[in-house]
Amino acid sequence: MGSTTNRSADFFQRGVPSRQSHQQAEVIAVPLSRPSSDDDQPEGSPARSIHWPELCTCVGLILLGLAVAATSWSYGIGTVTRMGTGFFPLMLGLMLAGVGSLVACEVWRTTQRDRTPFPFRPAVCVIAGILCFALSVESLGLVPAVFMLAALSIIGRPGFNPMLIVWIGTAMSAFSWLVFIVGFNLPLEAVRGW
To answer: Which parts of the chain span the membrane according to its record (predicted)?
Structure first.
């Protein structure tokens, strides 16, 4: 009983925190800084810089797309219901110019700090897979060529699983055989010599 009385006496001696002091504590806990932008960077931080090789590549894509679109006018565009020979290249050229414009805006917007290094391994493996497919589809057949394309593309992925090559390679080979040889009846052999 005596300890309870001592506690209540201590409580009243210290006093109950007032509403005003409680609100002040809340105000102090709220951060007073706003997110920094590129304009008000502290000294010593890297300044905003444009990655010129990427921007030049985007400008090249835009110019290539516009050149394809301009060249397609000489082939005859036609209408949507009766397309001429230039309709498809015109659409592809405009889409290429549009994608180049979107990527250029993204390159212009991002800062040097936001960039990640270029993934060389996946790019090299995918390009090697496409070349391997192009060189082997007639000499080995569609199924082995698609399997090699899938295998090389998967190897480019960091931390790939060898079983993934077997599963995806087999599935893509079977799908390609069903669609292109059975479905479209293209003059390709599934496996050369079989």
So the answer is: 55-75, 87-108, 120-152, 164-188
Residue 145's pLDDT band (cuts 50, 70, 90): very high
Q: How far apart are CA 66 and CA 172, in angstroms?
A: 35
Q: Which of 135, 175, 126 is nearest to 154 (CA)?
A: 126
Average pLDDT of the chain is: 78
Orientation of helix 120-136 relative to helix 142-155, angle to 10°: 170
> To 10 degrees, what angle do helices 162-176 and 142-155 make?
150
Q: How many helices (H) and strands (E) does the chain have?
A: 7, 0
Q: Virtual CA dihedral for 20, 25, 28, 30, nearest 10 degrees?
A: -100
Look at residue 55 and give its three-state secondary structure: helix
Q: What pTM was computed for the model?
A: 0.49
